[in-house]
Amino acid sequence: MTATTTAAPTGQTRRTAPLPGALRLGAARTRYEVRTFFRERDAVIFIFAYPVIMLAIFATVFGQDGSDIDFGGLAVSFPQYFLPGMVATGVMLTSFQNIAISIAVERDEGGLKRLRATPLPASSYFLGKIGQVLVNCLLQMAILLAVAALAFDVPLPDDAAGWGTFAWVFLLGTTTGAVCGVAFSSLPRSGRSASAVVTPIVLVLQFISGVFFRFDELPSWMQQLASVFPLKWMAQGMRSVFLPDEAAVLEVDGTWQHGMTAAVLGAWLVVGLVVGVRTFRWRRRDDG
Fold first, then answer.
1. Crossing angle of helices 98-108 and 191-208, rounded to 10°
2. pTM for this one?
3. Which residue pairs, CB below 8 angstroms and at least 24 apart, start in 215-222?
4. Contact 187, 275 (CB under 8 A)
5. Choice between 22 and 11, residue whose per-residue pLDDT is larger
6. How far apart, in whole angstroms, are the C-alpha atoms of residue 142 and residue 251?
7. Going by C-beta distance under 8 Å and a sequence separation of 6 or more, which residues neighbour residue 75?
8. pLDDT of 11 higher than 70
């Protein structure tokens, strides 16, 4: 972007400073989005507490008599088994659901229309949204893993390879969820209907993707349907981090399928980008 000139009072020209770059503005927008998010205390409590509460419920209900899940002679506690699903669903709620609903509300209230009239590049706005999701997901995961380790004695990875797998599945899954949330935000007709449109989809995916139940015990048609969507692969990728290697025999292919996990999440990232570019709206449907 080139600098502009304005007339000084003395008749001389004065050069104004150019706008910061898109990345710098994106970082500034991220800080703004994070501050705005934490002002919505009810949303903050729900997003951060949901996976912790669900982990506690499932660990208590299924493991109340001290029973474990047997993987060929290797016992795994119910909290340890359900933790990967809670990590995956927490990421999905914070990225896809939160972004899709919040953007729809901003559009309905006219915020996007006003923002579009400013010099802020569109890319910086979207970078701010993705940055906010990354920050919130990191905080959410820190809380969830701390509770799992301290309250339920869930063993965390003890080597660099395990944390490396966690990092790339987490980053790819979070980014994919945020981008798909941006793309999906144009589907609800209004901000008031956004939650009613987005929440049922997220809820169905949770039930068929191995979040609330053992994936190998679901009907085969349900497993095949879940394999189309990112949540199943995020949950499977996280199972490879928090479960012993012997547990891989219960996956559909008998392995953790890291390559397929990366491929499916990457494909959805590309789809979200293409659909978002083509369909994103800055105005309400009734505003031209």
1. 170
2. 0.89
3. 215/250, 215/251, 215/252, 216/250, 216/251, 216/252
4. no
5. 22
6. 27
7. 68, 69
8. no
Across-strand partners of 70? 75
Q: Are 205 and 226 in contact (CB under 8 A)?
A: yes
Q: What is the largest CA-CA distance in the chain?
A: 87
Backbone angles phi, psi at 77, to 5 degrees: -70, 155
State how far the Cα of 235 lies from the Cα of 173, in Å rounded to an integer.
10
Contact 219, 69 (CB under 8 A): no
Give me the helices (H) in the chain, please: 22-39, 41-62, 78-92, 98-108, 111-116, 122-152, 160-184, 191-208, 220-226, 230-242, 258-279
Cα 174 from chain centroid (whole Å)? 4
Return the amino acid letter for 195.
S
Nearest alpha carbon to residue 188 among 107, 85, 132, 81: 107
* Measured distance CA(145)–CA(131) in Å, rounded: 21
Q: Does position 1 have pLDDT exceeding 50, yes or no?
A: no
pLDDT tens by residue, 209-244: 989 888 988 999 999 999 999 999 999 999 999 999
Q: Quick check: 129 and 272 in contact, CB under 8 A?
A: no
Q: Write phi, then psi, for 54 (nearest 5 degrees).
A: -65, -40
Q: How far apart are CA 37 and CA 133, in angstroms?
A: 10
Q: How far is CA 254 from CA 66, 220, 233, 250, in A?
A: 27, 15, 14, 6
